[in-house]
Design a protein that fits this description.
single chain, about 375 residues, alpha/beta, Rossmann fold, 2 domains, seven-stranded mixed β-sheet, six-stranded parallel β-sheet, 13 strands, about 35% helix
């Protein structure tokens, strides 16, 4: 019996699938979208090294979940056929679907279905009613529904008619390899691209785009001339807010104590997170970010360094004292100065170290396996 997961484009889903593959046989499916996929049927399988995972690509018609392609393409049947061909027992093989657009596939699959919801999809573009309809169909067809936050769980229950007993919340996480075996007592060595920067160093990791409060960061940096700042992540996504965009451009053009090192592989992020004197999580309060689960929080939690975060992520509002919450640049400056006085030790290093031990992708995969087993047990009891 094999577990299959569609689709594994997102880094966090690929990480989860890799962790799952260490517990049960797992195949990740990667769609290749095009306007002419109707006339293509080629699949290709390859072994991903980082993270380890067997992935199979397949052509997928752009707009396949919408009329008229939904009728013309009949991708639900093509996808289901592909999935069935990869397992000898379709009625027993679990299928994990990561997007509401695969709702018809969920209804078509004869085995157990898990809806793994890692984003607040109604906030994307101008199609909340369309997404809600798909979510409703997906929740009806799924055996287990696994949102990565309480807010998404609440939405699925109230607006997609998902029964509470179907829901198992599975937040984002970090790799087990990123967890310290013993509690660290100081920041790690600086990676080569920032080795010349003077300490102390404040670090920001992630997609450096619209969900970041660049105005707050600019003001905080101006108030902390004694501090070096490092930004790790891509900056190619556009920012619609002109003031936020100008603030990012200003910081990117800055030199000296502000360093943008560009996008790094997931495996490299650990060394940056461990090297910072303090981690900054400067989220704007906006959807879909606010309703999701913060992957960078779990990366920094594993590094055990102090964290300062805005209130732009609902999940983080319940994480003190693992981090310190602030509302503006003056509060961030005050928090940074408090850490400066204490040599960047906030007294919660051991608490973060203990908390990090279970916040791994491997743990999340185990929870999903257990949730599916429990759901089947409930079904058997009801039938009896």
């Amino acid at each position: 019996m094999i577990w299959q997961i569609v689709d594994v484009r997102a880094v966090w889903i690929k990480e989860f699938a890799s962790a799952l593959s260490r517990q049960v046989p797992t195949l990740g499916w990667l769609p290749k979208f095009s306007a002419a996929s109707l006339i293509h049927n080629h699949e290709e399988e390859f072994a991903c090294d980082d993270p380890p995972l067997t992935i199979r690509t397949f052509p997928l018609q752009r707009g396949f979940a919408r009329f008229p392609f939904k009728i013309l393409a009949q991708e639900k049947k093509r996808i289901t056929r592909r999935l069935r061909e990869r397992t000898s027992s379709p009625t027993k093989s679990p299928l994990i679907l990561t997007s509401p657009h695969f709702a018809d596939v969920a209804a078509e699959w004869s085995g157990p279905v898990i809806y793994y919801v890692t984003d607040f999809f109604p906030a994307y573009r101008d199609e909340p009613h369309f997404i809600r309809a798909l979510d409703t169909k997906m929740c009806a067809a799924a055996t287990v529904v696994c949102p990565n936050s309480q807010r998404i769980a609440d939405y699925l229950n109230s607006e997609a008619q998902c029964p509470i007993e179907k829901i198992a919340i599975i937040p984002n996480a970090t790799r087990a390899a990123n967890i310290f075996q013993n509690m660290p007592t100081a920041p790690g060595e600086l990676p080569y691209p920032i080795a010349d920067l003077p300490r102390p160093i404040a670090g920001v990791i992630g997609n450096l785009a619209e969900n970041t409060d660049w105005i707050l960061l600019r003001n905080a940096i101006e108030r902390t001339p004694w501090l070096s700042w490092v930004f790790v992540g891509p900056t190619d996504m556009a920012i619609q807010d002109a003031r936020q965009d100008e603030a990012r451009r200003f910081l990117m053009q800055n030199r000296g104590s502000v360093r943008f090192v560009g996008e790094k592989s997931y495996s490299e992020l650990r060394d940056y997170a461990r090297s910072f004197d303090v981690a900054i999580l400067p989220y704007q309060k906006r959807e879909p970010t606010y309703s999701g689960s913060s992957t960078r929080f779990y990366e920094h939690l594993a590094a055990c360094r102090p964290m300062i975060a805005t209130r732009g992520f609902a999940e983080l509002l319940h994480k003190e004292p693992l981090l310190r919450l602030i509302d503006n640049a003056n509060e961030m400056r005050a928090a940074l100065e408090d850490l400066h006085v204490s040599n960047f030790s906030d007294g919660h290093e051991e608490l973060r170290w203990h908390a990090s031990q279970t916040e791994t992708w491997e743990n999340r995969a185990s929870k999903m396996i257990a949730a599916l087993s429990e759901r089947f047990a409930i079904g058997r009891e009801a039938a009896a």
